[in-house]
Amino acid sequence: MHRKAKVFAEGVTEQETSPAAVLPRTATARDLLEAEEAPDQCSMTPRKKNKKRPMGAGERRCRPAVNLLLVAFVVAVLLAVVLLVDGVGVPAVWIAAAGAQLRRGSGYAWLPYAGNAPDKLLGGLLADEVDDKTCRSRHESSAYRRNTPRRPSPHLVARLRRHEELQRRCGPGSDAYGRAIQQLSAGRSAVDAECKYVVSVCNRGLGNRILAAASAFLYALLTDRVLLIDRGNGMDELFCEPFPGATWLLPPDFPVAGLANITVDAAETYGNMLKNKVLTVDSKEPVQVPALAYAYLEHDYGDGDKRFFCDDDQRLMSSIQWLVARMDTYSVPGLFQVPSFADELAALFPERDAVFHHLGRYLFHPADHVWSLVSRYYRAYLARAEQLVGIQLRVFDSEQGKSPHILRQITSCVWKEKLLPEVLAAGEPVITPVPGGMSRTVLIASLRPWFYERIKSMYWEQPTANGEDVGVHQPSHEEYQQFGRRSHDTKAWAEMYLLSLCDVLVTSGWSTFGYVAQGLAGVTPWVMYRPVNFSETPDPPCGRDVSMEPCFHTPPMYDCKLKHTADTARSVPHLRRCEDVKWGLKLVGPK
């Protein structure tokens, strides 16, 4: 029996809490009412009440009579042409296409969430003046995704519009940007600069680059800086421009070279400038600050660089016109530890566990060639499922690409948590499927094909314990991560986005790929624990995460007052240790 989704205090729907009992993905509130009260749209007789009948099935299976007759006529004509002219050869493809059109109807009306109230602007996150021809995913994705219960705060919406104006006024191509570049090239620090900048640089995998860019953007919002993204590693090809009428890409003629080669030892890092007395936080006299500094926040940063998350140091950094933020992870939880940012962050994000959910959906829209991969695959393989279960599998040890222990971990997780039905052993009585019963589709994202092949064969060769049908799909299997290869990153971004369209997610611990997918989806995942011993299956195999927020793998653990290493996470009530990285930090909602 399908149940209406309830919204709990923390903003999570019952659909998330008990995914085995969710409403079908095609159901809306209007569907629920019409299924009980409205007459059948294809018959003059009233529709009988049937709670086992999937919501919205009538809308999928019943099309206007004109459409049916028209497509039937086209099929008949094509068939006649084939038989009379060319025999029975190649044109069968045309007949198959016409049959697909007959099943689907025209436009996007057949997509799972096309019947929902349109929310193309994502509750106000997106500005409405963008031409719908400039970025297809920005305007079409709402038909592929369920409406989120998480709404952006009015303050966040207002700050986004203000930041867009800042990007136009001070970004590349503006007079202000030209003056800032002249001062930087001359090595001069602008006093009371009209525009300040933060440049995001990350040379890691795509998931890391996305999380680093989101972190830099939040810092830009908090400090009124223009955000510029290093265009290396395909960042200029994978995403649409997020800011209307402005760019977020660092121009190729930027006068500072070698940003990709910044290390912790560079003299221009903030920590080394403090160490070498180029900068002094405690000075009572006016200090001449450099035009540019590196905020080095990668995994190997030292105590001096960790002072980025201290109030006094932020006041000093506010006088530096150009900050180059070199980071490789999601550092947003660290910004919540800066006392001077606390009030603004609380106004921007009343729901602390939805920060990346809002920032990610605002910033990261697949470029048109990536969106073509996403939309084609979704329509062909995923759209008709009433529940999508995404499994993101990252194998960190190359020798575990065909590990039966990891395969057992996956099946143990999805069966123990009742995310997928178990399969029957040989000789057990087969359950007759209920007409119109739940259909589930599994989307597997992994570099390795072996796990997909085993899971797909299992659900094909063995019936399920409850009679449900389960389809299993995997878009690609690149075998290993290929840094810097554009085609690889294109597929990776497409698969992250496909995962974010799922209703239920199972992810691999430590994986930034999974972090991005769960944040965009607005779904709290089940996390498969990283094995300590690769010859055994972890017990338990997985656990529900504490929130959908990504984990900050390398939090500063630095006491700004005492100026030495210390665990200060407990001083912020909405920060908790991560389920997958025990020393990591993540934002959580109210208990």
From TrEMBL:
<keyword id="KW-0325">Glycoprotein</keyword>
<keyword id="KW-0328">Glycosyltransferase</keyword>
<keyword id="KW-0472">Membrane</keyword>
<feature type="transmembrane region" description="Helical">
    <location>
        <begin position="65"/>
        <end position="85"/>
    </location>
</feature>
<dbReference type="InterPro" id="IPR004938">
    <property type="entry name" value="XG_FTase"/>
</dbReference>
<dbReference type="Pfam" id="PF03254">
    <property type="entry name" value="XG_FTase"/>
</dbReference>
<keyword id="KW-0333">Golgi apparatus</keyword>
<dbReference type="GO" id="GO:0009969">
    <property type="term" value="P:xyloglucan biosynthetic process"/>
</dbReference>
<comment type="function">
    <text>May be involved in cell wall biosynthesis.</text>
</comment>
<dbReference type="GO" id="GO:0008107">
    <property type="term" value="F:galactoside 2-alpha-L-fucosyltransferase activity"/>
</dbReference>
<protein>
    <recommendedName>
        <fullName>Fucosyltransferase</fullName>
        <ecNumber>2.4.1.-</ecNumber>
    </recommendedName>
</protein>
<keyword id="KW-0961">Cell wall biogenesis/degradation</keyword>
<dbReference type="GO" id="GO:0042546">
    <property type="term" value="P:cell wall biogenesis"/>
</dbReference>
<keyword id="KW-0812">Transmembrane</keyword>
<keyword id="KW-1133">Transmembrane helix</keyword>
<keyword id="KW-0808">Transferase</keyword>
<comment type="similarity">
    <text>Belongs to the glycosyltransferase 37 family.</text>
</comment>
<feature type="region of interest" description="Disordered">
    <location>
        <begin position="37"/>
        <end position="58"/>
    </location>
</feature>
<dbReference type="GO" id="GO:0071555">
    <property type="term" value="P:cell wall organization"/>
</dbReference>
<dbReference type="GO" id="GO:0032580">
    <property type="term" value="C:Golgi cisterna membrane"/>
</dbReference>
